[in-house]
Every structure is written in C-alpha cells, then in structure tokens.
C-alpha cells in the first residue's frame, strides 16, 4: 500500500506525490519531527513546514496524523494561494480503498457539514459589508475621544475619572472584538490587509501583539476544549474543568488549590486578573522571547499615545493606576463573554471527532438581541463562528438556521441560552467540577 514510513522525504521531484497510503500509515507520523496530515485525500509531509507555518508550530501539529480538510477550509480564505505552499509538501494520496474520513468518524456528518459550507458560500455569507466594520471602528475611536474630552472638560475628580475608565474599558472591549475580526481574516478578501489592520487594532488601539493572539487563538479554534491542545483550558492547576480532569486530579491526589471552592475563588483570580496580569505578562514575554520587534513597536505606539494624553492630567503614576483599572474592568467583560460559551461545555482529552461534532460539543450560543450582539462582539453566535471562523460576524444570524437544521437532522446538540444563563453556567460548571474532584480525592 505504498510503504508508509519509507517515503517520509521524497528523493526527487519526479517521485514527489507518488505514494499511496493507508490511514494507519498516516497516523504513524504524528510525532514531533515526523508529521503528516491529509487534506482532500492528499497526503502531505509537513515535518519541516511546521516551523514556518504562519499560524504557529502547535496549530498545524495538532492535526498531525489526521484528516485536516475541514480545518484547512476553515482557516484559509484564499485556499488556492495556500495550495502553492502545500504543493512541495505533497508525498502521495490515500489508497482508493481508504475512506475520506479517519478514525471512525461519521461519514454522513462529515459530508453534511461540507455540503453546508458549500451552501453558505453560495448564499454569499462570506462576503463582507465594509460599512459595518467602518462604523464599528468609528464608534471605538469616538469612545476614545469622548473619554479624553470628559477629563479635559470636567477635570480629574472621582466621578469624571470613573466615567473615563468605564468609557475606555468599553472602547478596549469593543476593540478586542474588532481585532478578533481582522485576526480571523474575515474583513478583507486579501489576507495581507487583514493582517495589517489586525496589527493596527490590537497593537495601536490595545497595546497587545497580533502574533501572540494568532498563535494562541487559532489553537483554540482548531481543537476547542481539548486538553494539551486548546490553551484556553490550560489553567496551570488553578482550576479543574469538565468532568474528566477533576476525577483524574482527585485520583492522583493533586491539590494545588482547594478546587471544591473554585467557583468562589474564580471571582477573585479569574475575571479580575486574566488581562491585567496573566495576559499582559504573557504578551510581553512572548514578544521579547521571540524577538517580535514589529509587534512590540505597534504595542509601544499605544502606550505612547495613552501617556501623552493622560499624563498631563494624572501624572505618570496616576495614569498607570487609571490604565490598570481600565484593564481590570475590561478583563471582567472579556472573561464572562468568552467563557460562557465554552466552560460549561464538554472539556476532555482528544477524541478525534469530525469538525461539526467537535465544535458543537465545545460551544453554545447565546440568544440574539442588539445588545447581546454588541456586548459580545457577535460571539453570542459562537457555534457559527467556530464552524466558519472566516465568516464576517454580521452574517452569523443568517447562517444559524442552516447550521441548526443540519444539527437537528444528524442528532448533534445545538444549545442556545440566555445571557444570564450563560453567566450562571460558568459558575455552576466550576462548582460541579470541584465537587467531582473532591469526591475522587476523598473516596477513590
């Protein structure tokens, strides 16, 4: 059937792409230093390419030994351009007797999702409305100007300062949702323009790093709620999540913190600290350790602009206190919005599920309303966003009925909650996981 490991590196261009492989052979090449993957039945050796992959080493490595067809389609709005990079990596194809899907995935669900994707493409749901994003950027800049004018006219008393901080936190949160759009390449047809505006919004408007965000966030989309692959569920022993990890920790008698109280201490070390402490340290460390001077320069323009605007009113120390408070407020907003769709869902080790099932098990939606759309940056349509991450967010509501129909037909749970229920489920799921840990810790 083609000799599997003997053709890890084709000897010449004449031999490139001539191998025929089984899934068993492909799956053997799923280790660091030896990585193959399959896209549209074509087998690629990405061992050397992983170091140059724009999405980072970890992202593409998560699909080593697997079918990456749907992930490839989800992340690349210009597939023909990307295939130019894939062509030299081609070493063969799956044997005719091999199914298109791997690891006993449901062929009907795989095909149903690919048909769904073709349908939303025909409906034009990947087409952007430029006015939507122009208005969104405009209201962010307006908020920034309003915060400064408020202090300029009313002074630096407690009430003007509090109002200024709230306006800045709103601006920062909305800029976070906008950089998310550019980061997912969902605004412009050409990726280069998305990358440029992404650096402007996340760097100049927020003081963070585009590359740090890309390498972290795309992993989350590739393998959501999967331990060791989704960095968003890497809690550094601070929390135990889901129903599997708490029991594993309990059986091993691991007690870094009193996890049966995690639903209580979450309010003190979760929402308040994620952005101003953990993310800030991680972003700075990443930019310096990777010598990402371009992103560092973009982020410095944010701090230069901020201090030039507010040091004349508050002095350097006062300006530091103000931005720290703004980050504190923004962090609460960010944590509750991003975690209400994921923490209460299934969190487990790798199960090698098909794209539709994997994303639906890890995500849920929040009811649509003008406020919910604005407040969450349309991440209340988390299901549609995860299935089609390059789709402009103003089209999620049009895609939702189509997605829901496919899920109902194939028995895939499609959950929709109220905003308040989403918040409550975060705490409830942490409490349930903590109780599972305590039971295993004491009795197993």
From TrEMBL:
Phosphoprotein as a keyword? no
Q: Which Pfam families match?
A: Cyt-b5, FA_desaturase
Cite the entry's keywords alphabetically.
Answer: Fatty acid biosynthesis, Fatty acid metabolism, Lipid biosynthesis, Lipid metabolism, Membrane, Oxidoreductase, Transmembrane, Transmembrane helix
Q: Which residues cross the membrane?
A: 131-152, 265-283, 303-326
- Name of the protein in question: Cytochrome b5 heme-binding domain-containing protein
**Protein's UniProt keywords contain Lipid biosynthesis:** yes
Q: Name the domain of life this protein comes from.
A: Eukaryota
- All copies of domain Cytochrome b5 heme-binding, residue ranges: 18-95
Q: In which pathway does it act?
A: Lipid metabolism; polyunsaturated fatty acid biosynthesis
The organism encoding this protein is Megalops atlanticus
The protein's location, in the record's own words, is: Membrane
Gene Ontology cellular component annotations, sorted alphabetically = membrane
């Amino acid at each position: 059937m083609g000799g599997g490991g003997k053709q890890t590196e084709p000897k010449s261009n004449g031999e490139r792409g001539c191998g025929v492989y089984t899934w068993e052979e492909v799956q053997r090449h799923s280790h660091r230093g030896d990585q193959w993957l399959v896209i549209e039945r074509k087998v690629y050796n990405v061992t050397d390419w992983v170091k140059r992959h724009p999405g980072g080493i970890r992202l593409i490595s998560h699909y080593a030994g697997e079918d990456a067809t749907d992930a490839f389609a989800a992340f690349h709005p210009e597939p023909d351009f990307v295939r130019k990079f894939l062509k030299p990596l081609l070493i063969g194809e799956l044997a005719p007797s091999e199914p298109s899907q791997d690891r006993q995935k449901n062929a009907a669900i795989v095909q149903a999702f690919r048909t769904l994707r073709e349908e939303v493409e025909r409906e034009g749901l990947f087409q952007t409305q430029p006015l939507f994003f122009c208005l969104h950027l405009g209201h962010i800049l307006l908020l920034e100007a309003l915060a400064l004018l408020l202090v300029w006219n009313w002074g630096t008393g407690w009430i003007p300062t509090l109002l200024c901080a709230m306006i800045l936190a709103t601006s920062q949160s909305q800029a976070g949702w906008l950089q998310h759009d550019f980061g997912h390449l969902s605004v412009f047809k050409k990726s280069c323009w998305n990358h440029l505006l992404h650096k402007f919004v996340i760097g100049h408007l927020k003081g963070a790093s585009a590359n740090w965000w890309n390498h972290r966030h795309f992993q989350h989309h590739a393998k959501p709620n999967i331990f060791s692959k989704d960095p968003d569920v890497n809690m550094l022993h601070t929390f135990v999540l889901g129903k599997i990890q708490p029991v594993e920790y309990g059986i091993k008698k691991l007690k870094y913190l009193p996890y049966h109280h995690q639903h209580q201490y979450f309010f003190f070390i979760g929402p308040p600290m994620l952005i101003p402490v953990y993310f800030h340290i991680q972003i700075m460390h990443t930019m310096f350790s990777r010598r990402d001077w371009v992103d560092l320069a973009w982020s410095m323009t944010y701090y230069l602009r901020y201090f030039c605007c507010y040091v004349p009113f508050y002095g350097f120390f006062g300006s530091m206190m103000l931005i720290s408070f703004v980050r504190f407020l923004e962090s609460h907003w960010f944590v509750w919005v991003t975690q209400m769709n994921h923490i209460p869902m299934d969190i487990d080790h790798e199960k090698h599920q098909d794209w539709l099932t994997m994303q639906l098990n890890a995500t849920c939606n929040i009811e649509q309303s003008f406020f919910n759309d604005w407040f969450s940056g349309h991440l209340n349509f988390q299901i549609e966003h995860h299935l089609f991450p390059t789709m402009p967010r103003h089209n999620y509501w049009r895609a939702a009925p189509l997605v829901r129909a496919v899920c109902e037909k194939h028995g895939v749970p499609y959950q929709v909650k109220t905003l308040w229920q989403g918040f409550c489920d975060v705490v409830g799921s942490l409490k349930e996981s903590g109780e599972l840990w305590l039971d295993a810790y004491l009795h197993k």
